[in-house]
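User: My collaborator sent over this chain with a note saying "see what the structure looks like." That's all I know about it. Can you take a look?
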Amino acid sequence: MPKPKKRNGRGGQYGAVQPFSDEDASIETLSHCSSFSDSTSVAEEGGDAERVAEEEFHCKLKVYIDCTVDKSAKTRQGALDGLKTAMATKILYEFILERRMTITDSIERCLKKGKGEEQRAAASLACLLCIQLGSGIESEEVFKTLKPIFKAILSDGTASVQARQACATSLGLCTLVAEDDILDVYATMECFESLFTRSYMREDGSRPSLSPATTQLHTNALLSWALMLTICDSSHITAIIHKHLAKLPRLLESEDVNMRIAAGETIALLFELARDVDLDLDGEDWEELCAKLSALATDCNKHRTKNDKRKQRSVFRDVLKAVEGGDFQTETIRFGTERMAIDSWLRKRTYDTFREFVGSGMNYHLQANEFIRDVFGLGPPVLIDSATLKAMKTSRLERHLYNAAAFKARTKARNKFRDKRVDVGEF
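Assistant: Without extra context I'll predict from the sequence alone. Here is the result:
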């Protein structure tokens, strides 16, 4: 009887692939200069080193792509995570363009045959692939392949909740990037509505009994639905406001802080869009809503954690201002030598969604990704040489002095609003 073949102890054809680290993602960190001859000029040495490093970088990416079809689930997931990190931290348009269908096939296979965590990684990779390709025919081809799978998993109650959560978020962003038919956008919004409306408080005042994982699924669906609102035309926005604005405050009664915050931000976005399309909401009675928002902005319930209450108060103070007067707390994002203002709820929802996928690479994509720059109206990428960039950087001492002064000023400002303990004596 022949002996069975021994499997690779590391799992799979290529072994357990380690996720792509930030160190791997930066070509500049790969040191190859020592292998060159001393007689070569510094300029040639640096150019050759960069070329060799880039070739090794692409070779590693090819290994990851091959590993996405490995028999080992651990190897496949490691390869997906490696590709995700690479796409989040580098612009790889040329490399990905000629391999997009191969990567799409791998994502499709992992979504259909994988489990939980692997499906989550595949769904996230699909979003990053569309972000890299931008809004065009290439990303439309990718999305047409994956959209039916996203919707099938999303509507399948027997599927992993973790996979459904990831598909809810990924379907929203991929629709924003790659959907070419506005009617299909509306159909996707209805798919999201069928999920988050299940968290609505009932007419009799009772709350639906949902697990935390299911509530998170509904939260992701609501946030993706809100993202779709940013690209709807005025007539559809008007219909949405008449249909949902009076019902969304029911979600503010949820026990989950993330659901309450998502509902509050969506309400603020709807009020902002209503003002943009000149829809008159002043005739409506919003006193009950404002009272509810005010209560959440000053929530002192002891059964909630300090972190939840702090996060909730900060958000709902801004939401209340948006509902009452249309105000927005502008935030400035700095990247390289440029700045971008987040000055509306629409812009905030878009920015938060992209940042969720690219993470720490968001500033890099704001600088170099033409699609993301186009979404935020930043124009073509600004090219700056390394000498100018180095001259613009502040020294460590300057940063320390600035932070110390800011800390001192912040402490003084906060002390004005803190209760002072006063000795009133005894009567």
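A starting point for your reply to your collaborator: The first helix runs from residue 22 to 25.
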